Amino acid sequence: HDHEVALINSSHAVNEFWFGEPLSVYQRSRLPADDARELAAPTSHRLESIPFISDAPGHAHVHYLKVVTKTIRHYSSRESDTLVYKYTVHSNKYSAPEGTPPSIDFKYDLSPISIVVQQQRMPAYKFVTSTCAIIGGVFTVIGIIESVLHVTSERLLKKQI
Fold first, then answer.
1. 51 exposed, middle or buried (CB, 10 Å; 0-12, 13-18, 19+)?
2. Which end of the chain is more exposed for a tag (fewer CB within 10 A), N or C?
3. Do 67 and 139 share a domain, yes or no?
């Protein structure tokens, strides 16, 4: 049996890896732009399409995953929350103990911390107030700059006379 175990090759590639149910097209369309881009990015699926090659017989692979849940609460209370799982991964390759068949292990740690994103609409009065504050700030800065330039030019003119 020892010779058979030594011949096992644990090379592999992960074609698809999800926590929870994959999001529907509609759920993806309702995600905030940053989350939709991140979910579509190759770095979001860190194990997919990466070959893990065993260089020698008896090599085992272990993938350590840290999983965090992210809940997205939508504007409308009629829509259910969207639950997205995000993970980081660190993979190691090691020689399996003699007589033990090599393995491919996925060890995951579900984080007790969760990210909650609350989508909210800005009321009209807040928008108007913020816009007025920005415009007022711009006029104040322009007034300060104009005052400094005016005082400086008066002093220079007095020195020349």
1. exposed
2. C
3. no
Cα separation, 95 vs 138, in Å, equals 66
Domain hosting 45: range is: 2-121
pLDDT band at residue 3 using 50, 70 and 90 as cut-offs: low
- 142 in the same domain as 72: no
Q: Is the pTM value of this prediction over 0.85?
A: no
Asked whether the predicted pLDDT for residue 2 surpasses 70, the reply is no
- Scored b (16 or more CB within 10 A) or e, 121-154 reads eeeeeeeeeeeeeeeeeeeeeeeeeeeeeeeeee
pLDDT value of position 39: 73
Same domain, 117 and 63: yes
The total of structural domains in the chain comes to 2
